[in-house]
Amino acid sequence: MDLESLNIFCTVAAELSITRAANRLGRVQSNVTTRIQQLEAELGVELFVRTSKRLSLSTAGERFLDYAKRMLALDEEARHVITGGLDGGVLRMGCMESTAASRLPTVLAAYHARHPTTRLEVSTGPSRLLLEQVHSGRLDCAFLALPPAASDEASLAEMSLVAEKAWHERLLLLAPASETSAHNGREIRTRSLAAFAQGCSYRAIAEDLLGVSDTPGWQVQEMGSYHAMIACVAAGACVTVLPRSVLDLAKVPTGLKTLPAGQVDTYLLWRSGYDAPAFQNLLNQLKKRA
Rounded to two decimals, what is the model's pTM? Predict the structure, then answer.
């Protein structure tokens, strides 16, 4: 099993097409097919399910894909560390949607200006998922609000993780104009909460603030963006909880009700001992900003 075969496999898995993968890799189709067949023979399993019209990952292929990506990433990290960062390297960074919207643009612009040869790969997701991806090595670091199960140094140390505060966020409960008489979350009459998927720390805060679990009639509408959440609140269909920094950037209709929803720190999380130059450059930049 060599790195080039792993790269070919990951490309075919991304494209789910030998033709497109070959074009992307600059190889002939027969070569790509042969390398995949050799890898399958070496592993003793079929990585793809082949039909006359489509290609899809097998169950074994889905499991192997994560390992293949991590092995390729580890190779890049090793080269980056050994050269002292001369090659720029790759930094795989995760963040919450709110952080991507309100905090990261300035940080990443400054980082790129100082380290233009480093390739940044940024993905978003709920805090719990981001923590799991850093822990498993799928991400190098992540900006997130720590879930309750990992809210102290001892819990993080058990998972070989380290966290450092990056920003302090003021959370707001945003409600329709019809809720002007409400003074706290428990007085909200609208019984629909717009939130991200389970694992989002802000969703957990919102559910606790509103008493979703112990108040009859509540429904949670899972959405993929704050723009959609704000639009639904403006339509009178639901309430949501979001950082003040995000609300300040949004075009919010006048008349909507806002209530304090607490304060939360956003942390930069990484694996203990991870000291790749690309990451250290980011950490040093954040420390200088502070």
Answer: 0.75
